[in-house]
Write a structure and sequence with these properties.
It is built from 14 helices and 23 strands. A 6-stranded mixed beta sheet has the order 6-5-4-1-7-8, sandwiched between helices. Strands 10-14-15 form a 3-stranded antiparallel beta sheet. Strands 11-13-16 form a 3-stranded antiparallel beta sheet. α6 links the parallel β7 and β8. The structure holds glycine and manganese (II) ion (2 copies).
């Protein structure tokens, strides 16, 4: 499988989407806007994932219009010799038709003039809801002249519908091209983690001062060296107790002998994310309490992985994780057996929550927290109610998504121990997460991120070398 996605793949996605738009339907898909960072400097441009999924076109200021009959129109930046001197190459509408396999292309400046004509006599306008500020108002603006032409016999679409509902389902199951890109992104990220671990141990051995940003620099170096465009999300490089801050970012805290370091970082490669967390001893040797807690998180991840296969529910890996963590928290004395009783009590009362307060995974794809419903669509009408033991709130549960081959999810259990009365001091300030990316297969899952080891002995070995 090459990493170049042929035009036929995007054409096939558009055809599959068109077939779901209903008689007379039409879809409008904008890419992402360019965003100002400060003064006249933009943030690095990142296309919209839905738009890119349907076109493979990464330039800003572009729109796709697709009819239920499968006719595609692209509106994009025009060729402009002067702008291209400043901003770089533009494909332009003339070349776009052949280069992208689109039926027609025009300049984006023609949007307000062309859209009313395209929307006329259609039954339903589909566009992504709540993802592009002001889009609903723009659609209304394009429909106004259509309504004005009613006396000449024009029909105005009576319905508007959320295109995300269709595209989210399509994107949830990855095709072979997407999986090839995701495996590649995962391999680059794995190498980056190894690089950061090794640099950390090497600097400490040499008596040098290590800061979190030194390790972040290694990640960025490896990402770019292997052709990734950017990190898929803000990298977390957390030394010591910073690991207990779930959304900590790589900053400037010193990394000390005896610390654990938690790195949650993954690159994006040609629009696809990877998402890896490793927790390792800064100097390459786990202490006893660190190792005990690490082994527990690893055992909980192994239980989750064993529960990840086609036909299982999305919540099964989480439930498997929690069962192992609950037992381990009692065994290690982080939860008091006299107070909490059995494992079943710990689970039912969510007594593990102060140490494990996030879910065990999420969909992964073009977006790190990728789209796709976590409820099984065929069972969406089955609702049960329960009282949350901690908040007392009544929660409505719907059956969790049944995993299918080609879905990709992360498996990322963790434990975060903040100092608190009754919590053994040896564990205070330890934060551990182990995160891998899993492709669902019929009888199992494929871990695409194991280019960086998780076994503590293997981590120690690679940090020694
Ligand atoms: N790095 C984001 C996450 O693990 O979900
Ligand atoms: Mn994740
Ligand atoms: Mn992560």
């Amino acid at each position: 499988m090459t990493l170049t996605v042929p035009n036929s793949v995007y054409a096939e996605r558009r055809a599959r989407l068109a077939a779901q738009l209903g008689d007379g339907g039409i879809a409008i898909v904008p890419t992402a806007p360019e965003r100002m960072r400060n003064r006249d400097s933009d943030y690095a441009y990142r296309h919209d994932s839905y738009f890119y999924y349907l076109t493979g076109f990464a330039e800003p200021n572009a729109w796709l219009v697709l009819t239920a009959e499968g006719h595609s129109t692209l509106l994009c930046n025009p060729k402009d010799a002067e702008r291209e001197i400043w901003d770089g190459y533009r494909l332009g509408p003339e070349a776009a038709v052949d280069a992208l396999g689109i039926d027609e292309a025009y300049t984006a400046a023609e949007l307000d003039q062309r859209l009313p004509r395209l929307l006329e006599n259609r039954s339903c306008v589909w566009y992504p809801f709540a993802t592009h500020a002001g889009l609903a108002a723009r659609v209304d603006g394009w429909l106004t002249p259509v309504r004005a032409r009613a006396r000449y016999g024009a029909l105005c679409p009576a319905r508007q519908a959320d295109l995300c509902l269709l595209l989210d389902e399509m994107r949830l199951v990855k095709d072979a091209h997407e999986l090839a890109l995701m495996r590649h992104a995962a391999q680059i990220s794995a190498r980056a983690h190894i690089r950061a671990m090794q640099r950390c141990a090497r600097m400490l051995r040499a008596g040098q001062e290590v800061r979190e940003y030194h390790l972040d620099a290694e990640l960025l170096h490896a990402f770019r060296e292997h052709g990734s465009q950017a990190p898929a999300y803000g990298s977390i490089v957390a030394a010591g107790a910073n690991a207990c801050v779930l959304h900590y970012r790589a900053d400037k805290a010193p990394v000390r002998q005896g610390d654990l370091v938690l790195i949650d970082a993954g690159c994006e490669y040609d629009g696809y994310a990877s998402d890896i967390t490793r927790t390792f001893p800064a100097n390459g040797r786990f202490t006893g309490p660190q190792r005990a807690l690490y082994d527990l998180v690893l055992a909980s991840q192994e239980a989750a992985l064993a529960a990840t296969r086609a036909g299982a529910r999305f919540t099964d890996p989480h439930d498997a994780t929690v069962a192992v963590l609950a037992q381990g928290l009692l065994d290690l004395g982080l939860l008091n057996t006299n107070q909490h009783g059995s494992v079943q009590d710990v689970i039912e009362k969510r007594a593990y929550f102060p140490f494990y307060m996030h879910r065990t995974g999420h969909w992964l794809g073009m977006d790190v927290h990728d789209c796709g419903s976590y409820v099984e669509p065929s069972e969406v009408g089955t609702v049960s109610e329960r009282k949350d033991p901690l908040s007392g709130e009544t929660i409505q549960d719907r059956p969790s998504r049944i995993l299918r081959p080609g879905m990709v999810l992360t498996i990322e259990p963790g434990l975060y121990v903040r100092p608190a009365p009754g919590v053994p001091e040896v564990f205070h300030g330890l934060g551990i997460r182990i995160e891998d990316d899993a492709v669902v297969h019929p009888g199992s899952c494929e871990l695409i991120t194991r280019g960086v080891p998780v076994q503590p002995d293997e981590i120690e070995a690679l940090m020694r070398d």
